[in-house]
Amino acid sequence: MVIIGLSGVGLFLMIIGSVVTYYARKPNGSGIIQISDDEAGKLMAEHTPTSLIFSEVSYTVNNRKVLDNVSGIVQPGQVMAIMGASGAGKTTLLDILAKRLKSGTATGSIYLNGQNVAPEQYKKLIGYVDQEDVMIPTLTVYETILYSALLRLPRSMSTAAKKFRVMEVMQELGIDGIKDSKIGQPGARSISGGERRRVAIACELVTSPSVLFLDEPTSGLDAYNALNVVECLVNLAKNYKRTVVFTVHQPRSNIVTLFDQLLLLASGRVVYSGPESEAQSYFKLIGYPCPPGFNIADYMIDLTMGAVRRLPNQPSSIVKSSLTADSTAVDEDNAFFAPSQTPKATPSFQEGLENTTEQWATQPSAGNSNVTSAPDIQVEEVQEDGLPSYLKDLVEYYQHSAIAVVIKDAIQNTVDAAQGLEGDQSSINSISIYQRPGPLAQFQILANRTFKNLYRNPMLMFSHYAMAVILALVCGSLFYQVSNTIAGFQNRMGLFFFYEALLGFMCLTSLQVFASERILFVRERANGYYSPTTYFLAKILFDIIPLRVVPPLMMALISYYMVGLVEGVAQFFKFLLVLILFNLTAAAVCLAIGIIVKNLSLANLLACMVMLFSMLFAGLLLNKDSMPPYFGWLKYLSFFNYTLEAMLVNELLYLQLVEERFGLKIDVPGATILSTFGFNAKNYWPDVIRLASMFLVFILIAYIWLVLFVKERR
Fold it and tell me: Listed GO cellular component terms (predicted)?
């Protein structure tokens, strides 16, 4: 039987090795893809050129105003950059525009093509790329984007069409040349940071969003890769009529010139909103000219931080009255700029801005001003509303400027036109909401992805198997053919307890089952990839079967007959059942802790404490009948207790032990020994049921916590 057990384990390991080798060498199927003309036409028709308009957007959290009256407009084919110092409200504004869940109160209006859009249609038309690129390192670039397409594109769309869409997006972003490269770990051999960022963008583009939001797409990149990413976004907007909005902290000058629209924030207020090409003229007009050779982006950030001094010949009252007079004067030549009039015939937004530039050029103060040689630190008093006086002036300058009137009128005219016209203008709300893959299809896709990640990183699985085989052989040799004596009983009890401790602490690896992908899960859940249920089932399936069922099976096959435990096929399978149930329960406890506790070190400490306390009340280190009453109830929480009792009952219930004393042989029934240690000889099946119940309870706790609490919070 020992030889049979060893042969079975060896055969199993050979099969596992062959499967891993086969799938590791199997091509990923990113070759030539053919689809029908109908599907190709449908793919081309998915995209709807869409303008983004936001008016008087404000956001308050904990009675603190984070954003105040922010407005702007971005047309299809344009790129808007939201700039500002740290804490200016850039990401908050981006989240509100993308309608991400926020804990505070947001007010204002957001329109697509001038129309209010239902939440379902809005999500269909936008894509959101987070600042941090979190991906599965063992997958290739093509596979990473493909899984996004398989999970998010319509269920009615063929797999070939989805693969075609993936290839199309990779070509749009210029990453088709690295499609077979693995994502890799940051800091190790992998694709570059700029390529990772473009892969993250591609995962959103597969759904053909009309408006693409990106949070700090250049963050953490060197100058070369940052420029490549922004150029990629600009080409995406120009060539494919996308509307691109992203936040950026302090870009280089060659990146700034690529922006179409610029929105500069300071403490949640608008300091400038308009074409990037007109920003220098605007700040020169209000008495803050950018020094020659100075990066305008750096200058604007310094300006919002109070590190720039106004020209001495530009008093605030003169500038404000000049801006107000400018807005009124323009009304005589072009009705588009009138703050109190909505014309029937509206020129283009760009034309209005060009006229604004001409008006600035005629300002005497702008043309004859001297340029400051370097920024100076300026200390300003804080006003009652919490804003420094210099910042309050900047906000008021913009509010009184002609360009603010241009944007305000453009927003109003676009909304009025959209609400008054039929046909193409109402196409946004008529977009059908397609059905994504159902729960079963999601589970199959996620299971495939999880299995692929497992066999491409098989060290954890093989480490469990190697440890199980080696320690089973060691235990089999150490406890070889144990005798039916009191000493033999002690050896049996020690062996069973050692198996529990070994498998229990091996289950600490279950802490990593979810912790390693927590951020990825939160991001994918927020972007609507799948339901938490299908993800949870796929993850536990590929943790339970290879890591929690197979190792105890190997240990039982090798050591059961080497040790010489009670004979009988039924007894063997009853022993195996208890061992597997114990391993599943310990894994479920660690899984629940890993999901509930975010900090992995703290989760590891907590899981170790749970294991140790459960071991303490197992019945070996402390006799169950002699426990103090106020601690005795803790044994009912110990899965070590139920496991040890079930294995001992299975082994000793009908076993007759022989003890030799003073030349006399004394027969001692195994049931008597069990009762001496506080174990109940009738408790095998009740203990099995309790173990199964504990497993289900902890799995349910992990699942409920995952669904209710592990979600994006902004």
Answer: endoplasmic reticulum membrane
